[in-house]
Amino acid sequence: MDPSSCHGLEVEAKVEQGPLVDMQMADLRVRVEERVFAVDRTLLERGSEYFRALFRSGMRDCQQEDLDLKGLNARGFAIALDVLAGGRPTLSGDEILEAVECAVFLQVEPLTKHLVNLLNSDNCLLMYHTAAMFGLLELYNSAALFIRDMYRDLEEDLKRLPEELVEYVESLEPSVFVAVGTHSSCTSTELPHAATRTVCYLNEDKNCWKVLTELPMEVSTSMAGVAVLENKLYIVGGLCGVHKKASESFFCYDVVTNVWSALASPQQPRYNLMLVGHEDHLYMIGGEYERALMSSVERYHVSAGTWSYVSDLPRPVSGGACTKALSRIFVCLWKPMETTEIYEYLPSRDRWALVTTLIRHQSYGHCMVGHRDDLYVMRNGPSDDFLRCMMDCYSLTSGQWTPLQGHYPNSRGALFTAAVRGDSVFTVNRTATQEYTVTNKTWKQRAQLKGFPRSGSMWTFFLRLPKADTMPGRNSVIDS
Description:
Layout: E1 28-32, E2 35-39, H1 41-47, H2 49-55, E3 66-69, H3 74-84, H4 93-106, H5 109-117, H6 124-134, H7 137-149, H8 151-158, H9 163-171, E4 175-181, E5 198-203, E6 208-214, E7 225-229, E8 232-236, E9 239-240, E10 245-246, E11 250-254, E12 259-262, E13 274-278, E14 281-289, E15 292-301, E16 306-310, E17 321-325, E18 328-335, E19 339-346, E20 351-359, E21 364-371, E22 374-380, E23 389-395, E24 401-403, E25 418-421, E26 424-428, E27 432-439, E28 442-450, E29 458-464
Parallel strand pairs: 1-3
Antiparallel strand pairs: 1-2, 4-5, 4-29, 5-6, 7-8, 8-11, 9-10, 11-12, 13-14, 14-15, 15-16, 17-18, 18-19, 19-20, 21-22, 22-23, 23-24, 25-26, 26-27, 27-28
Helix pairs in contact: 1-2, 3-4, 4-5, 4-6, 5-7, 6-7, 7-9
């Protein structure tokens, strides 16, 4: 690859990682085994329930400048300090075990979340078994769900675990591939077409698409924001009615109860926007209103049910691409005809940080998905081969771009909707649903299933459905 075709990693995108500890802020010495750590007391109190309780207890220990922690591994404590300081360390097998022990002993929630973010097919069985031994419930549940989604690949290795751990995984339901077409909100004159206003899922065993739910009449998916958070589907904005006005609606679908709920409308109606969920919040990013591009970003607090503005994008954008990787939010801002910039949103600082820039001659449109610590950006080829789908991979760890050889579903936008489950990526069009296995930054076709029989563009995502026998009326097969 021509070195001039991409820019290096911007240092501001890593400002949250920080050093292990700022020595000027250290006001406490902690002895663990034979090592002594100079630590900021406030850092420990903020990130560890153990230290928070200790420092607020009024006991003599809370006033001392030296503490001696017994029964804890020094390397695990060092990992915890790194994470509390904003680091994102990769961990070996032994380090995972020691980090889990420390997360439990000191009740370090940020370390637990970091371990969940590191889950992959190489370490998930170790994470699962270790979390079970130490009683780290959040990691235990997350690892079990991850393993269930990759059951075909891990089935033989899973048998090496204790029987009760295997039984728990097998009791869970795997995520299923879900799609919904483009539909405007309905009026009474449009009722004959309501039969196609369905959210459908792919039954991989029987190779057929089945109806999951019908869209409420007020819901528009035309240029709307669609996202899944905590196994619930959210749809906001878009275009509605014959006059194509910006919709103010905001709906949530609970797959377990099969109930749609209308939620508080955002402050600014918009369409052609990006929507992504992260830690009890939904971010409505960019878009258009009355044909004017927008840079504003609204955040919905799910638990509180309220909207608020956060920092604007660096520039207005509509129809952009966004994804999550390692529980971090990334957006693509595309500059016709050749430049793609990737920004990360830093919630703790409420700012957008430039991560990298990619330059490709005459590329059109794109989507982006995250897998492990990689971002895959898909785009059409040069103008002389518009239907060809090209792909570049950006490593968040190394800060390097890698152009992928060959091309992937190469016609009619098949790759311009993609969703990740474990080490698989699913893409779909009317002709076929294709599953790719991602290994070493290479996509290898694994299976081809029936396409989604709806015309127009579509949204795709994964949901974890209840057992089939608890879904009456939600399993009818849709026609090809």
